[in-house]
Amino acid sequence: MLRFVIGVLGALAFALPAAAQVQPFPASFRTQEIETNGVTLHARVGGKGPAVVLLHGYGETGDMWAPLATALMHDHTVIVPDLRGMGLSSHPAGGYDKKTQGEDISGLLDALHIGKVELVTHDIGNMVGYAFAAEHPDRVTKFALLDAPLPGVGPWEEILKNPLLWHFRFGGPDMERLVKGRERIYLDRFWNEFSADPKKFDEASREHYARLYARPGAMHSGFEQFKAFDQDAIDNKAFLTKGMLIMPVLAVGGEKSFGPMMATVMRFAATNVQQAVIPHSGHWLMEENPADTIKLLKDFLQ
Asked: How far apart are CA 77 and CA 117, in angstroms?
C-alpha cells in the first residue's frame, strides 16, 4: 500500500550535545560555504574518483548521507550539500521551486570545477535532482532516486489524494506560530508515520535534526519547499515536453512506503529505469535499512 510522504561536521559546530550527534563524515572530508545563485550552500566534500552528488530531503539535512559517503569515498569524489533553506545553508526569501534549486546544484559544481556527476537523491532531493538532470542532462551520468515522487509527473494527482500528505498544504504565518518551539513534535510525526518501525529513526538523529530545524528561518524555509510544489509541477511538465531522461535511472522505494510505485513514476520521466525495493523499510531508507540501501547504491554506481 502506498504510504509515501514527502535532512556533520558543520552541524557539530552548532554545538549539539554529545547525546544528539549522528554519524560524522570522515575526518578527511572538508566543509565549504559556497555562494551561488543567490544562496550560500553548506557542503561537505571528500574522497577521490568520479563525482557523486548526494541530495537530502525534508526532515533531514546532508548529514543523513554520512554512512553512504563513507562507503563511496574510496572510489568517488563525494559532494553533499544542504539544500537551500535547510541545514546550515542560508535562508533566502525565495527560490524554493526545484528548478531554481537545480541551478543551485549546477552553480555548486561549477564552483568546485566539477563537470559530470552521478546523482543520489531522497525525498525533496529527488525533485531538485530531477530539475538539475532535466536542465543539464549532459552533466548527469547516473541517477538514483529514493522514495519520493515528482510533482506533475505520472500519477502525481492520485498521490496527492493520500490523506497522509496533508502537510503539503500546511504553511503560512499561523502554521509557523503553531510549530515554533514545537519543532520536535512536528518532525516526530514524519519520522513516526513514514517509517516501518519508528524505533529505527533513533533518538540521537531526532534530536540532531530537530535542533537544526529550530534554527531561525528553518521551518519557514521548509514550508516554502512544499508551497512550491504547484510551480514544480508546471516546470516538470515543461521538462517532459523537451524529452525524457536517457541516463541510467535507479528508482528505489521502501517496502512499507513507496515500493515499486517509485519505478512507475520514473518511467514517465526516463527511458532507462531499473526498479528496486528496500525490504524492512519505510520512507527513511538510510535509517531503517542502511546496509541494503548502501549496497544497492554502490552496485548501481560502479
From this structure: 9
